[in-house]
Please model this.
Amino acid sequence: MQEPNYEDPLNHDAAAVLRENPKMFESNVRRAMAGGYVGQTFFPR
Model:
């Protein structure tokens, strides 16, 4: 969990964001963990 691996992902969409835009990936993780939307998916707190 500390070092996500985009070469062998469970979530291919998240892996693509990590590979192409690590800052956006970090922002998405923070938003999901705090409770909110990432794309069209809602993550409850």
